[in-house]
Design goal:
This protein has three helices and 29 strands. A hairpin with a 2-residue loop joins strand 22 and strand 23. The longest helix is centred in the N-terminal third of the chain and has 6 residues. The protein has one domain: Beta-galactosidase, Chain A, domain 5, CATH 2.70.98. The protein is mainly β. The radius of gyration is 19 Å and the shape is globular. An eight-stranded antiparallel β-sheet has the order 11-12-13-14-29-25-24-18, with no helix packed on it. About 5% of the residues lie in helices and about 45% in strands. It starts with a strand and ends with a strand.
Length: about 325
């Protein structure tokens, strides 16, 4: 049977989940981020590894599975939805954009813990409640509840995000994850031994401010390898935006990314639900130890796009409505 317990990391408390041969660690005080996930049986660390809490706090967005709400960039931090004007902080001043939203570094509270007696599975729900007292209410004046649910089992770590509109007015919703996957996941091997397969469709052209131009480009030959036999995650410096086009595998369609060590055959599998209609793919200037396949529900700068909502992934929640979608990380 699985178990859940607490341990300290410096001055911060971690929630440790163990089930199905996996171990996950979640830091409630920093976005309920799953900062570590490993297969104990296979000795595979799935997520980018970090030992020093000060290093993590200096850059919490590039470790684990930080939640982006909303994801990526918004031009000048401003947009209009339903005749309501928003002005976010400009936290990417070199491009005059707002970047990655409000929730990745917010403290969440433990909402519920369940340990299955019938199967080797644990369930932990963490919650953030936004209202008039929230520090970012001046930028995003909505009352809402965000739940991050972590379910650990022999199938890996399933993460479910739920956003509920508690307000009397409609609320725009965009969600993503800045998931940092370890490329050195098999001991003795590195990124040069890894290939990436991913459900990318078309590349979305970005301008010099990393915002979409409105142009969609057919994958080039190097990018097509990501849909077929696999491509090195270091084939170039990646900070690219793609649509989703599901892959068809032996066991059905697949929306996600697979990283395979072709010397050993071990794989990391990252699956995303259908509401994640876009990818960002970033390898930190070919740094070499990790890559971020970032599922996003909406196009970068979606609220300012002239394209229809079906294409951009724009979601408007009415009063009482709930957005829900999952991702799942595992290995074999």
């Amino acid at each position: 049977m699985g178990k859940v317990y607490r341990e300290m990391w410096g001055v911060e408390e971690l929630i440790v989940l163990e089930a199905g041969g996996y171990q996950a660690k979640i830091i409630p005080s920093v976005g309920a981020n799953a900062i570590a996930l490993k297969s104990v049986d296979k000795n595979i660390s799935i997520l980018r590894q970090i030992e020093d809490i000060e290093d993590f706090k200096a850059a919490p967005g590039v470790y684990g599975t930080p939640l982006l709400f909303p994801p990526n960039r918004i031009d000048a931090g401003t947009f209009e939805v339903r005749n309501m004007r928003y002005q976010f902080e400009i936290n990417e001043p070199n491009h005059n954009n707002s970047l990655h939203g409000f929730l990745a570094d917010r403290p969440f509270e433990i909402d519920e813990i369940k340990i299955s007696e019938e199967k080797d599975q644990v369930y932990v729900s963490l919650v953030f409640i936004a209202d008039e007292s929230t520090s970012f209410y001046q930028y995003f004046p909505h009352k809402f509840t965000c739940r991050l649910i972590h379910i650990l089992s022999s199938e890996g770590l399933k993460q479910i995000v739920k956003i509920e509109n508690n307000d009397n007015k409609a609320m725009p919703v965009g969600v993503g994850y800045h998931t940092a996957i370890n490329l050195n996941f098999v001991e003795g091997y590195s990124a040069k031994d890894v290939k990436l397969v991913m459900s990318v469709g078309e590349r979305i052209e970005l301008n010099d401010r990393a915002l979409p131009t409105g142009r969609y480009i057919e994958l080039n030959e190097d990018e097509k390898l990501m849909r077929n036999s696999g491509q090195s995650p270091m084939f170039k410096e990646l900070d690219d935006h793609y649509t989703v086009d599901a892959l068809y595998m032996e066991d059905g369609s697949f929306h996600g990314a697979i990283l395979e060590n072709y010397a050993t055959g071990n794989q990391i599998i990252y699956e995303a639900g259908e509401k994640f209609k876009h990818w960002m793919l970033w390898n930190c200037g070919k740094e070499g130890s990790f890559i971020c396949p970032e599922p996003q529900t909406w196009l970068v700068n979606a609220p300012n796009s002239d394209l229809p909502d079906e294409k951009t992934g724009m979601i408007i929640l009415e009063t009482g409505e709930v957005f829900e979608e999952y991702t799942k990380l595992s290995c074999r």
